[in-house]
Design brief:
The complex is a heterodimer of chains A (133) and B (143). With 133 residues, chain A is mainly alpha-helical. Chain A has one domain (27-130): 3 helical TM bundles of succinate and fumarate reductases. Chain A has six helices and no strands. Chain A is elongated and about 60 Å long. By secondary structure, chain B is mainly alpha-helical. Helix content of chain B is 73%, strand content 4%. Chain B contains five helices and two strands, in the order αββαααα. In chain B, strands 1-2 form a two-stranded antiparallel sheet. In chain B, α2 runs antiparallel to α3 (67-78), α2 crosses α4 and α3 packs across α4. In chain B, 18% of the residues are buried. Classes of the chains: A mainly alpha (133), B mainly alpha (143). The interface between A and B is medium-sized, with 32 and 32 residues.
């Protein structure tokens, strides 16, 4: 308990209220990485099982599967969680190993842009696939 | 400098001056251990899976576009290259999945003692291998 108190004292009251650490970025990134990780546990199991069930079947079956609102919603959730999680993780890798400030910023923006575009493409494809039948 | 221990004592002060002081071991002289290897693998599989999302996007877009596009992606995924990519993708996915669960357990404050760290590490490796083989046994039966 004494150790826990000591750690708490090392941060300013204002810093604690704003949830800001030494990096001034708070815990939002770390927390979002965990939240998406937890979400991806059931979503991944669901997707692998259904992908196996759809493997080798014609497109009409896939479209029928995706037309079910629950499947379309879970697919959209999977895509959103996947690209958010991937983008957060890749950003940390870049920040760890790329030391030039300009290159680092350019790479982070590139990663975030690519993740956002791929995510939007996937979501629009899901909506279109779900309304084929 | 006579041996690697000496090499590890060569550092730089903030003004660029060379100083003799202990440094963290560099990767080249660090004996590979289950802890470090699995940690590196978690990152590596994360990067590979990010690239692997392209396969998922292609599949979704092709399915949305029509019969011809879907036939193309199906044909590619059943080709030797496609199957190899899919196998790599499932193995990578299950490793990152199991290793991720281990990280979440650590986040919850569980499993920090060395014997548990070693045991959970090997559990992750074995579980990922079993899940990959299981996925492909089901895939072979289904297709």
């Amino acid at each position: 308990m004494a150790a826990a108190n000591k750690i708490a004292v090392m941060r300013s009251e204002l810093g604690r209220v704003r949830a800001l650490g030494a990096g001034r970025a708070g815990t939002a990134h770390w927390w979002a990485q965990r939240v998406t990780a937890v979400a991806l546990v059931p979503l991944t199991i669901w997707f692998v099982i259904d992908a196996l069930r759809l493997a080798g079947l014609p497109r009409s079956v896939v479209a029928h599967w995706a037309s079910h609102p629950i499947n379309a919603a879970l697919l959209a959730a999977l895509v959103l969680a996947t690209f958010h999680h991937a983008q957060l993780g890749l950003r940390v890798v870049v920040e760890d190993y790329v030391h030039g400030e300009r290159t680092r910023m350019a790479l982070v923006l590139l990663i975030q842009g690519a993740a956002a575009i791929l995510c939007l493409i996937s979501l629009i494809a899901i909506v279109r696939l779900a309304t084929v039948v | 400098m006579t041996d690697s221990r000496d090499a590890l004592m060569l550092g730089r002060a903030s003004d660029g001056r060379l100083v003799r002081r202990p440094l963290s071991p560099h990767l080249q002289v660090y004996r590979p251990q289950i802890t470090s290897i699995l940690s590196i693998l978690h990152r590596a599989t994360g990067i590979v899976l990010s690239a692997g999302t392209l396969l998922m996007v292609w599949w979704l877009v092709a399915a949305a576009r029509g019969e011809a596009a879907y036939a193309t992606v199906s044909g590619f995924l059943r080709s030797p290259v496609g199957l190899l990519l899919l196998f790599g993708w499932t193995a990578t996915l299950w490793y990152h999945f199991c290793s991720g669960l281990r990280h979440l357990a650590w986040d919850a404050g569980w499993g920090f003692t060395l014997p548990v760290v070693h045991r959970s590490g090997w559990t992750v490796v074995i579980a990922a291998a079993v899940l990959t083989v299981l996925t492909w046994i089901v895939a072979v039966i289904v297709i």
